[in-house]
Specification:
Largest sheet: 5 strands, mixed
CATH architecture: 2-Layer Sandwich
Number of helices: 5
Number of domains: 1
Radius of gyration: 19 Å
């Protein structure tokens, strides 16, 4: 359908082109929704039988940043011990990081620094991904990881968000035996926190 509309867009007259563009946009939104639904479903299925491995965090995060950061204007600060490894599944961990970084770039990439830090606490590794955005209303924090939940004040329809991205993050991190949470920071920052098991717990 997307291919057909691309052809049609070049063949209709100027007066009718706007209608074709509207329908094309709807198809693109539907395509993104189907893709995210499949990802969410696939991640859920994997939780039933997943083998945790020793995964070094730094290479995973560096690969995500190379893929997700397309503009030099986006500023990233990394504070990650290159020796830190967690018990996880590589594909699921990569997907979780990619979704959070993608959100940070989309909603706050032009507002300041995006920071990714790691800290070892006892037998756990805490990873924080913070941006300089306005955050979300406190009443929405607990709902952020619910499927299809969208914070309307920040996620305009034009963004194409389906409300599944953070639900996918939660499913992926929990499949790796970890937890995920979010919080607003003062004066105007937003942070996602992953709490993961160290590799020796695998």
């Amino acid at each position: 359908m997307q291919f057909a509309f691309s052809i049609l867009e070049n063949r209709v007259d100027e007066n009718n082109r706007v209608y074709v563009e509207d329908v094309k946009e709807e198809v693109e939104l539907m395509s993104k929704l189907v893709s995210e639904l499949l990802t969410y479903s696939k991640a859920g299925i994997k939780t039933r039988a997943i083998k945790l491995e020793k995964i070094r965090l730094l290479p995973i995060i560096e690969n995500v940043l190379k893929r997700e950061i397309a503009h030099e204007s986006v500023k990233i600060a990394l504070e990650i011990d290159e020796n830190i490894a967690v018990a996880a599944q590589g594909e699921l961990l990569t997907r979780a990081f990619a979704n959070v970084v993608r959100n940070a770039v989309r909603y706050a990439g032009n507002l300041g620094l995006i920071s990714i830090k790691t800290e070892k606490v006892d037998e756990r590794v805490v990873v924080s991904i913070s941006d300089s955005g306005k955050g979300v209303p406190e009443a929405e924090i607990e709902k952020l990881f619910d499927p299809f939940h969208r914070v309307e004040t920040d996620r305009a329809r034009q963004s194409g968000g389906s409300g599944l991205r953070l639900a996918i993050v939660k499913t992926c991190i929990e499949a790796c035996g970890g937890t995920v949470s979010a919080r607003n920071l003062k004066p105007s920052e937003f942070e996602i926190i992953f709490d993961l098991k160290t590799a020796k717990d695998a």
